[in-house]
Amino acid sequence: MTLDHRLIDLLVCPVCKGPLTMHRDDASRPTELVCPADRLAFPIRDGIPVMLEGEARSLDGPPAAQTPVAQTPATQKSGAAPPT
Ligand SMILES: [Zn+2]
Fold first, then answer.
1. For residue 33, is it within any domain?
2. In this structure, is the dihedral angle defined by the CA atoms of residues 28, 29, 35 and 39, taken in order, positive or negative?
């Protein structure tokens, strides 16, 4: 089976358009497409690469951060601080 190999040749990083490296699990199934330049890993679900920057896992960031983009509150109400 070299089909996925051809498929990978067509896939480039959506961020930098650079080449991707396929990572495989113990059963040689493709699990992620990694862009070494951006340090991003794009997931492969059911054999379908998810080439979305928002779905990519940062290789530098902390692992298992599956939360959607959450903005930290920029403003804090005065008096909301917990008692010490
Ligand atoms: Zn890239």
1. yes
2. negative
3-state SS, residue 43: strand
Return residues with CB closer than 5 A to ligand 1 (ion): 13, 15-16, 18, 35, 37-38
Domain span at 42: 3-58
CA 60–ligand 1 middle distance (angstroms) = 14
Q: Is the pTM of this model over 0.70?
A: no
- What's the gap in Å between 79 CA and the centre of ligand 1? 44
pLDDT (0 to 100) of residue 60: 86
Q: Are 56 and 42 in contact (CB under 8 A)?
A: yes
Query: What dihedral angle (degrees, nearest 10) is formed by the CA atoms of 71, 75, 78, 84?
Result: 40
